[in-house]
Amino acid sequence: MPAPIRLRELIRTIRTARTQAEEREMIQKECAAIRSSFREEDNTYRCRNVAKLLYMHMLGYPAHFGQLECLKLIASQKFTDKRIGYLGAMLLLDERQDVHLLMTNCIKNDLNHSTQYVQGLALCTLGCMGSSEMCRDLAGEVEKLLKTSNSYLRKKAALCAVHVIRKVPELMEMFLPATKNLLNEKNHGVLHTSVVLLTEMCERSPDMLAHFRKVRQLSSSQLVPQLVRILKNLIMSGYSPEHDVSGISDPFLQVRILRLLRILGRNDDDSSEAMNDILAQVATNTETSKNVGNAILYETVLTIMDIKSESGLRVLAINILGRFLLNNDKNIRYVALTSLLKTVQTDHNAVQRHRSTIVDCLKDLDVSIKRRAMELSFALVNGNNVRGMMKELLYFLDSCEPEFKADCASGIFLAAEKYAPSKRWHIDTIMRVLTTAGSYVRDDAVPNLIQLITNSVEMHAYTVQRLYKAVLGDYSQQPLVQVASWCIGEYGDLLVSGQCEEEEPIQVTEDEVLDILESVLISNMSASVTRGYALTAIMKLSTRFTCTVNRIKKVVSIYGSSIDVELQQRAVEYNALFKKYDHMRPALLERMPVMEKVTTNGPTEIVQTNGETEPAVLETKPPPSGLQPASQANDLLDLLGGSDITPVIPTAPTSKPASAGGELLDLLGDLNLTGSPVSAPAPQIPQPPFLLDGLPSQPLFNDTAAGIPSITAYNKNGLKIDFTFERSNTNPSVTVITIQASNSTELDMTDFVFQAAVPKTFQLQLLSPSSSVIPAFNSGTITQVIKVLNPQKQQLRMRIKLTYNHKGSAMQDLAEVNNFPPQSWQ
Amino acid sequence: MIKFFLMVNKQGQTRLSRYYEHVEIKKRTMLEAEVIKNCLSRSKDQCSFIEYKDFKLVYRQYAALFVVVGIDHTENEMAVYELIHNFVEVLDKYFSRVSELDVSFSTSENHL
């Protein structure tokens, strides 16, 4: 068997390979040779083979078969063997392999070896890949070595101790006594590693931290003054060749000490006080011409920010950061921006001073710097500077890379929401964002924007005009088109009538508006959602516009056979509106009410059904009365949309009868209702239950209506009221009661009003009744839906009040309903 | 904490690699390729710190060789930058005018 080739030759051969395949071939051949050599148990060349194996491992080829060989090398007596063996162990083995435990004994012996280099090797390996079992076994040895006088060994032992502590935190106590003398060394290597050890201890355990901070008997053993003294020596001492890096002595040690000081001083007044002087000294004395100096200054600034320093020091730190920002070197600017981001929460005013420089950084070429500058700019926006900042940010949005656009757009929206000086400005800003970065905008921006627009009532005309102009030019940006079509649908009449105070009114005819909406529908660029918006908008315009109703009818009927199921469904239903339910159309398509402002904690709070948001809470708040029926019916219209049914029950802003029900919540006995005059519009209210009936059943409620028995709640004087129950599948504390009122007398009952009250632990919501006339002889009924929220699952009780006109006289009755079946509320 | 220390040349060949956290072999090559791609795409006057996944890369170019160190957020980036330079200076002293070949051929010395 010829002698295996040397590592150098292997490397040379591999370098001659021209393709990846050739290289792989060579390596496989060599691996085979190595494997057979291992099998032969050849001692002399083992080290060479393992070295080659390590090289191949570095290139990325599997080398696990060499692990056992490494162990054998470690066990041999030759130093070169040991060296390669330990190196191999460090690279190839880790605690996932079981083989590593075999090393423990070898390491133990080597830790007690006579040659310091061997000891050093063992310490290195243990510190690199020791598992917790190994660490436990060998911690005693390491601790002994920590106390030797040999500085070469001491520093390695300190690093090994760091690793041991990381693996087995309980052993920290063991190393404590040894640390006492560590800082008294002259050797920088030992100093450095001991500072690392102390840092690790302090970071891991708050007890250790307290221990190190407190004043001890001998003043010389206080940690903070010791560190301060060392640092002082470093700065003050003259040129020392072995520690010098570009004119500063041992910057690495300085940085480490500063970090340890930071940990010691955090949240601790005494230590912070002791450090103030030295920090000021470092900050002023360090040279900033070289990168090294800047590195130290950076660490100093971080430390000043973290500890409880006095304000003068903090101002000094921020000024240093400001100087960094003006520096030409990109690295330094990046570092400054990062630290400013960290401190902007606490020292807001100081950072504001540098605002202009930060904004300039937005224009920098470097990606990392731009990102940091953008984040920092958003943090700095406040009420005073919002206009200027927004201008800069919008300009940035125009020119930045796509990966930033989404974040920038959402940031701008948030800032605009918080600090908008006027509604018009707000709307302008949002429109600008939509036109420049429309396709990167987040999905919930559209409903938010719509909500904002409805809330700014006086701006409707202006908004719709601007949106119209924007879409006229270009309808490829989906969010923009969605918002625009929604607005045009809602406020198209304002657009056509040309009343706009803020801007020059433009002359638009109804046909032109319809042209635009139709082109959106037809265009290939429109997403399915956008088309839905456009179709709904066209439909709404049928009530707002006067002369083009036929055209609208035509459009809607065309889409009744569209391939897109969503569009088809909508079109078919709108068609039905034109034909069968034409009397309902105006009421259904009335203006949307002002929407509740829901906190934008997350998109899940807002239920989005075709862009019309509804608050996802069951609480009832009374908005203007005439609009409830329309909006409530609108919600049901959206229920027709089918595909966006959400698990949350879409509760409309409720009608006045329900608000009266809300007032009733507190009045159990006294049913002094203010409901009667308000219920006058009730007769004109379209009939939601009909629409629901005409549809394929929605899977909102489980159909165990049969499962829960219905009850007769009231039966007197010919008036019978039945309750039927449904429980919601998705929300078990909601019960839906449908009441049916029938009249068995010979005369009709007119102006029938049903009111109900429930105990305080419940919440009640009354939807509008189907009509207010109960025809005689049981020939017809009034239906009304009641929703009861019963979070505590208490027994359902209800008090009802009925008012109606019968035989020419007004009748009123109170009754209590107690016979609710248990399934309705459990 | 330093996660890894790499020396990769412009063609993407790794000359030295030391990982201080466990990363599987296949992932290592992928990681190295991606990292070098990021570094190569930077121009000379861009800053040396790149944010990559959830940690930072500090890189420095010496002729045709890139030294890349992966660190997490607790480390001082500028200190690591200096460390890279210090390391290269040490190599320089050891090999007297180090070149890429020296780095590739003496892996064991480099590691230790």
From TrEMBL, chain A:
<dbReference type="InterPro" id="IPR008152">
    <property type="entry name" value="Clathrin_a/b/g-adaptin_app_Ig"/>
</dbReference>
<dbReference type="Pfam" id="PF01602">
    <property type="entry name" value="Adaptin_N"/>
</dbReference>
<dbReference type="GO" id="GO:0030121">
    <property type="term" value="C:AP-1 adaptor complex"/>
</dbReference>
<feature type="region of interest" description="Disordered">
    <location>
        <begin position="605"/>
        <end position="627"/>
    </location>
</feature>
<dbReference type="InterPro" id="IPR002553">
    <property type="entry name" value="Clathrin/coatomer_adapt-like_N"/>
</dbReference>
<keyword id="KW-0813">Transport</keyword>
<dbReference type="InterPro" id="IPR013041">
    <property type="entry name" value="Clathrin_app_Ig-like_sf"/>
</dbReference>
<feature type="domain" description="GAE">
    <location>
        <begin position="706"/>
        <end position="821"/>
    </location>
</feature>
<dbReference type="GO" id="GO:0006886">
    <property type="term" value="P:intracellular protein transport"/>
</dbReference>
<protein>
    <recommendedName>
        <fullName>AP-1 complex subunit gamma-1</fullName>
    </recommendedName>
</protein>
<comment type="function">
    <text>Subunit of clathrin-associated adaptor protein complex 1 that plays a role in protein sorting in the late-Golgi/trans-Golgi network (TGN) and/or endosomes. The AP complexes mediate both the recruitment of clathrin to membranes and the recognition of sorting signals within the cytosolic tails of transmembrane cargo molecules.</text>
</comment>
<keyword id="KW-0968">Cytoplasmic vesicle</keyword>
<dbReference type="GO" id="GO:0016192">
    <property type="term" value="P:vesicle-mediated transport"/>
</dbReference>
<keyword id="KW-0472">Membrane</keyword>
<keyword id="KW-0653">Protein transport</keyword>
<dbReference type="InterPro" id="IPR016024">
    <property type="entry name" value="ARM-type_fold"/>
</dbReference>
<keyword id="KW-0168">Coated pit</keyword>
<dbReference type="InterPro" id="IPR011989">
    <property type="entry name" value="ARM-like"/>
</dbReference>
<dbReference type="Pfam" id="PF02883">
    <property type="entry name" value="Alpha_adaptinC2"/>
</dbReference>
<dbReference type="GO" id="GO:0005905">
    <property type="term" value="C:clathrin-coated pit"/>
</dbReference>
<dbReference type="InterPro" id="IPR008153">
    <property type="entry name" value="GAE_dom"/>
</dbReference>
<keyword id="KW-0333">Golgi apparatus</keyword>
From TrEMBL, chain B:
<comment type="similarity">
    <text>Belongs to the adaptor complexes small subunit family.</text>
</comment>
<keyword id="KW-0653">Protein transport</keyword>
<keyword id="KW-0472">Membrane</keyword>
<comment type="subunit">
    <text>Adaptor protein complex 4 (AP-4) is a heterotetramer composed of two large adaptins (epsilon-type subunit AP4E1 and beta-type subunit AP4B1), a medium adaptin (mu-type subunit AP4M1) and a small adaptin (sigma-type AP4S1).</text>
</comment>
<feature type="domain" description="AP complex mu/sigma subunit">
    <location>
        <begin position="1"/>
        <end position="108"/>
    </location>
</feature>
<dbReference type="Pfam" id="PF01217">
    <property type="entry name" value="Clat_adaptor_s"/>
</dbReference>
<dbReference type="GO" id="GO:0005737">
    <property type="term" value="C:cytoplasm"/>
</dbReference>
<comment type="function">
    <text>Component of the adaptor protein complex 4 (AP-4). Adaptor protein complexes are vesicle coat components involved both in vesicle formation and cargo selection. They control the vesicular transport of proteins in different trafficking pathways. AP-4 forms a non clathrin-associated coat on vesicles departing the trans-Golgi network (TGN) and may be involved in the targeting of proteins from the trans-Golgi network (TGN) to the endosomal-lysosomal system.</text>
</comment>
<dbReference type="GO" id="GO:0012505">
    <property type="term" value="C:endomembrane system"/>
</dbReference>
<dbReference type="InterPro" id="IPR011012">
    <property type="entry name" value="Longin-like_dom_sf"/>
</dbReference>
<protein>
    <recommendedName>
        <fullName>AP complex subunit sigma</fullName>
    </recommendedName>
</protein>
<dbReference type="GO" id="GO:0006886">
    <property type="term" value="P:intracellular protein transport"/>
</dbReference>
<dbReference type="InterPro" id="IPR016635">
    <property type="entry name" value="AP_complex_ssu"/>
</dbReference>
<keyword id="KW-0813">Transport</keyword>
<dbReference type="InterPro" id="IPR022775">
    <property type="entry name" value="AP_mu_sigma_su"/>
</dbReference>
